[in-house]
Amino acid sequence: MEQKFFNILEYDKIINIICGFCSTYIGKEKAASLLPSCDKAVVKSLLDETFEASTIILRKGCASIFPIESSIDVEIKYIESNNFLQAKSLLNIANILKNSRELYQYMFEDESFDLSPFPKMKDLFSLLYFNEGIEKRIFSSIIDENTIADDASKVLSSLRRTRRNMEQGVREKLANFIHSPSYSKYLMDPIVTIRSDRFVIPVKEEFKDNINGSILDVSSSGSTVYIEPSSVFELNNKINRIKADEAIEIEKILRNLSLLLFPIASKIRTDLNVIGKIDLIFAKAKYSNSINGIVPVLNDKKQIALYGARHPLIDKAQVVPVDISIGNGYSVLLITGPNTGGKTVCCLMAFAGILIPADEGSSLYVFDNIFADIGDEQSIQESLSTFSSHMFNIVGILSKASAKSLILVDELGSGTDPTEGASLAISILEEFYNMGASVI
């Protein structure tokens, strides 16, 4: 279909609303690229998907879909290439597995819920892969992107226990130091602090030579020097050696967790795509429910019959439902007054699998294309360019439209002499009529 007409018919506004109902970046990407189809079988399949999802939502509530970071594509490529991941990336992958598991459970855990009326959703959710063992191991090993759990391995647990004991020993030694009557008078503050990953005490600059130790830092004012007393020098060294061993062990833990993901990399990528598709379908369903949308009957008679049709972008409390039909006895409908864009966007919505705001029994034909030439208010000084623009659009429509097309024109023949414009409008409408197109 001619995408340049979609914005004229406000389809882009509908898509923006659908994007707002999506939870994941991939769902939003799929929504942003959602285009109406001119294939009746495809349109029917899309509508069936949305109807199934909208019914499921009404019966068992919305599926819980967690946000997914856009970096996940890169992270999946890493494990597909057998490259190791860092903590944050591992958590993102575990989030995919958790998403998949909870979506699968949402659909299949309640055995009393009859899935036979929802074959498309059943098949889609069946594609989800989850591995609760790997998921839980990652989440239990990594607290956040900067913190690995103590019990991620026995070695790490032992190292941290030893380090904490040593740190306590250093603090106790320094506490005795700062509370000693012999040295407390030299201190800027009676506290233990850390500089360059080593425990130190803050000493007044004029007394720095009274403390046996190494100066590791000086305050910005120069009035305080941070000294590591010689008595804790070796303990600080041991603590830092343990920290180095911890870093090596953490790297080993992250490598082992990454190794678990290498064999299932393709399944994780499938999960990402399936979650994105579920997100889009349920976004369409949530929006469809919000406008009380229905599934239109798809006919083969080149007919549009909308009953109680409501413009989807007008407030429910203010919109006035109307009936509109074309194709049953006439193929060209002339309307004076109201703009018809709201009714045409219903066609685009349906062809993209979005339920339409109309009454049950409404029917649509899946056109091979939808064309539009919508006039807007222009000043007298711009009337010539406006008329030329309309004629340019009309020539383009005449060259591309077929007997299976829907053509929407507004203020046909405007922007020029009224008599000449009227004659031109009649000639154009006759040409559309003779080609067999449906025209409003």
Q: What is the strand arrangement across the widest sheet?
A: 3-4-6-5
**Can you give the helix content as a percent range?**
40-55%
Mean pLDDT, to the nearest integer, reads 90
The description of the largest β-sheet is: 4 strands, antiparallel
Secondary-structure-based class equals: alpha/beta
Q: How large, in whole angstroms, is the Cα Rg?
A: 35 Å
Could you give a short description of this structure?
With 440 residues, the protein is of the alpha/beta class.
Set down the secondary structure blueprint.
Layout: H1 11-21, H2 25-32, H3 40-60, H4 72-80, H5 87-108, H6 119-126, H7 132-141, E1 142-144, E2 147-148, H8 154-178, E3 193-195, E4 198-204, E5 213-218, E6 224-229, H9 233-261, H10 265-290, E7 297-299, E8 304-309, E9 322-326, H11 341-351, E10 363-365, E11 369-373, H12 383-400, E12 405-409, H13 418-435, E13 438-439
Parallel strand pairs: 7-10, 11-12, 12-13
Antiparallel strand pairs: 1-2, 3-4, 4-6, 5-6, 8-9
Helix pairs in contact: 1-2, 1-10, 2-10, 3-10, 4-10, 5-7, 5-10, 7-9, 8-9
Name a few traits of the molecule.
3-stranded parallel β-sheet; alpha/beta; 440 residues
What features would you describe in this structure?
The protein has about 450 residues and is of the alpha/beta class. The chain is built from 13 helices and 13 strands. The chain has helices at about 10-20, 25-30, 40-60, 70-80, 85-110, 120-125, 130-140, 155-180, 235-260, 265-290, 340-350, 385-400, 420-435; strands spanning about 140-145, 145-150, 195, 200-205, 215-220, 225-230, 295-300, 305-310, 320-325, 365, 370-375, 405-410, 440. It is elongated and about 110 Å long.
